[in-house]
Each structure stands twice: as C-alpha cells, then as structure tokens.
Here is the input.
Amino acid sequence: MKTGLSVWPHFVAWVFNPWFRYSGTRFPPFHRNAIAASQREHGLKPRATSCRAPARSALLLVALALFTASQRASAQPASALPAARAAAAAEVERKHAFALAREAITFLEHHDLDGAQAKLGEALAIIPDKAVWHYNLACIQAVNGKRTEALDSLERATEFGFTDFTQLEGDPDLRSLRELPRYLKLVARKEEICHRAAERAIEELRQKFGKDYLYEVDEEKKLIFATNTDRATLDALKAWLEAQTRSQCEQLFSHKPDEFIRVVLPSASDYHKLMKRPGVLGLYEDETRTLLAQRLGQVMTHEFTHALHSADQRALGQEHPIWLREGLAAMFEAGDFEDDVLVPHDNFRLGFVQSAARRQALIPFERLLRTSPQDFVKSPNLSYGESSSLMLYLHEQKLLRKFYDVYTASYALDPTGQTALESVTGLTLPDLQRTWEAWMLARTAPAQSAGPGGAYLGIHFATANDGLKIGLVLPNGPAAKAGLKSGDVIVAMADRQVRDYQSFAPLLAAHKPGEEVKIKFRRGEKYEELPVVLGQR
Here is the structure.
C-alpha cells in the first residue's frame, strides 16, 4: 500500500497549489451528516454541536465567496461564463476526489478496509486515471481476499502509468497475488509497461507545453525531459544529472530510481503559470515523479537530489523527516564536480545561520529533528541552513555515509535521526550542536558579491532558464571591451559551469581585478568564448 511516502507529496502540493487545499475537520464531513440524518429519521430535531460557530463562520465565508464570484462573473463577457463555470465545477470535483482519497487513508489508519475501498472507489469515479489510487485499491482488495478484483485494479494502475515495480514486487499487501499467473505475466511485462508509460508521459507533456519545447526519454537512466531550451543545453543538463546520479548513489543512496522522473525546465511564462507561490524556484513532487525548475544551476541540483533521495526512501519503505530531506538537498545544491565526484559546499544560507548563532537564535537540534514540515518552512533560511550545515559537517568529518546507513538501519526505532547522530559522532545531541556550532562559525560564507575594490564584469543580469542572461552591458566596462552584448547568456566562467547568480558571485569574488578569465556564453543559437580582463569596483 502506498501510504507513508506517497502522502508527503499531498502536503507539498497543498503548500504550493491552492487547489489541493482541503479544509478538514476532526471527523470527515459525512460523519456529522449521518448523525443529523439519523436524528431526522427518528423525528428528532438535530442537536446543536460544538461545530455550530465554525459552521456559521463557514456559511458567511461561502456567502461572501459567492457574492464575490457573482460580481466577477457580471464583469465577464457572456460567452466566457459557461466555460468559467464548467472549469470551476471541474475544480470542485477534483478537490472532492483528493479529499476522498485522503479519507481513504484515514480509514486505513483505523483498519477499516471496506471504508477505505469505498472512498477510493468514489475518488476514482471522479478521476478514473489516477494510477496510484488504482494501486492502493488493488492492495486493499488483495488483503481482503478479492484476488481477481485486485489483479484488475493492478492492471488498471499500470495502464494509467504506474511503474513502481520495486514497490509492487515488495509490497506485503500483494503477497496473496505473488504466485498467480496473471500477476507473474504482469511483472514479466515490466519493460513494455515502462516504455508505454514514458510514451504517454511525453504525449502529456507535449500537449501541455506545445511544439517549442524539446522532449526526450532516456529509458536507461529513467529520465523524461521537457525543456524550453536548445539542444546543447538539454545535452548539458542530461550529462549533469547522469553524473549527479552516479556520484550521489556512490556516496549515499543505495537504490537508483526505478521509475521515470519527469524533468521540466519551462519558459519563464509557463513557470509562472505552474508555480503560483512567489519566490519558489523549484519543486519535486514525488507522487507524479515530476521535477519542475525555474532554471538550471543550484535549484536543479537541489530538486534532483530530492528525486534520488525519494527513490531510495521508497525502496527502503521509509519516509525521512523534512530536516534530513532538505538538509541533504541544500548541502549538495552548491556542490561542484571534482574528479567525477559531486563535492558539496556551503550554500548562501550560511551567513544567516552564522548571524543567528551570534544572536543565540539557532534552532536547538532537539527541536529541529522533530520539526513538522509546516513549521520547517516558516523560517527557511535558518531551518534549511542549519540542516544543510549539519549534513556538511558530517560530510567533512567523513561520517555522512556512516550516519545515513545507521539511520536507515535503525529507522523503525528512531525516525527522527537523533539516535543515529549520537551513535556515529559519539556525542549527545546538545554536545554535537556545540561542536558543530564552533565549526560552523569558523567557516567563510560564500560571497554574494565581490565587494568594494573587488573584481567586476560591468554587466547587469536579466532572467533566463539556461544561464545568466546579460540585460545591460555598462559602456567601457570589462564585458563591453571584451565584446559581450546585451542578450548574451553566460553559461561558464573560468572553465566552470555558472548557470545562476548563486554560483557566479562566489566564483567572481575568488578572482582579482586585472585577472583574465574565459567567459563561455550563448549568443542566439551559437556558443562562443571570450577572454575578459576583470575590472575593479
């Protein structure tokens, strides 16, 4: 049964997509309705409950929403109203389907298989192509001894794109199906099913983004690409992710992805349509195995670390806490390759963490390890910064792999990670925090600019998804003298990839005025390289 890890993406979607939000109550809404119906059947007046005040508030909010909607509708052309109403109705139905699926999980937690099956059936009547719901239904039916129905649901799940054969072949809920000919035949068709799922995914992406994108499937590496870039950029992205997979799996993760990961690098306008939350530069949603990034660079490395880590968690049957997930992703985001190894470095958040330490405002590790996702994202620079710095400390003490192995082995006993941290470091958690804090304060935070008297190029940047787009070249500056122009997109400097400002600023600050550096850039569809003599601020 895909509960556990598959529940987390709903939280992520809830945070980033308002249409996923569901105003839950202590009891499912139908529970109170059933009580009221029973009272009416016995000729009794429905009794007031503690929900009366919230209900009145809810009715007022609904009335206000309806009034606002009617005002907006009156301002729209008559021809737009039917389509808008149909879209609104479809969205309400979609919300209801996801609410039903969540109710099914609640029923499962209370060991009510029949209730869970009924709710999943209702959800699938609304959204019939939701593969993971068909899979969960198959698990419930198999446990209930309905093997034929379970195989029907399992086959439907694969028809709609379910390809997690690691989960399927190891799931104890499907134990009763293992020796059946239909099950064995289904498993034997793994490559065919995966290939068909990839073709379906490409077609869905093509319909969503249109002909101006590049689409590609790498069946061996389990990657599907939809990028609003040129071929050279897509090839560079593929090479980076392949190297990242190889390096991180050698360093840390024991299980490579067994399902296709969709990597979407959209145009700026498409990204803003997809990502409604301001300031969010990327997202990995594990339920759909989709990575969305605004641009290449650190955000892509961060989100792809999530994808690899999620695959390892699924194979282990574990759901790691947010401090560990984000700590690893943020630690690797500023990394660079040295001899084919992705070596992690301090990220831009170190300055925030050092400032908090000097103000005695750090998050105690005892609390950090137990922080909920909702609380973790309230102070992201501090929580992400502390978690990633702790991971980097373990890495530099050559204890990271040992910690991860001990943690995953003892996960059932302590999913917070405290036991594993204390075991591999030989320190209590408070002592570890004091030791880490002294180490962290002695480090130099990555430069956010070259500073007064430092090196400079004489350019202002604009927005691009494949590198640093030059918005303005200052007259008579180093870039202008070298021949760089407005509209050029810098992709490398001094033989190192620089796809974003977080990577560019520390690299520029490491050079001195008067030094000559090579700048690789894209001009239109051509790539060129120019030597630039750095100026002084």
In short: The chain is about 55% helix and 10% strand. The two ends are 60 Å apart (CA to CA).
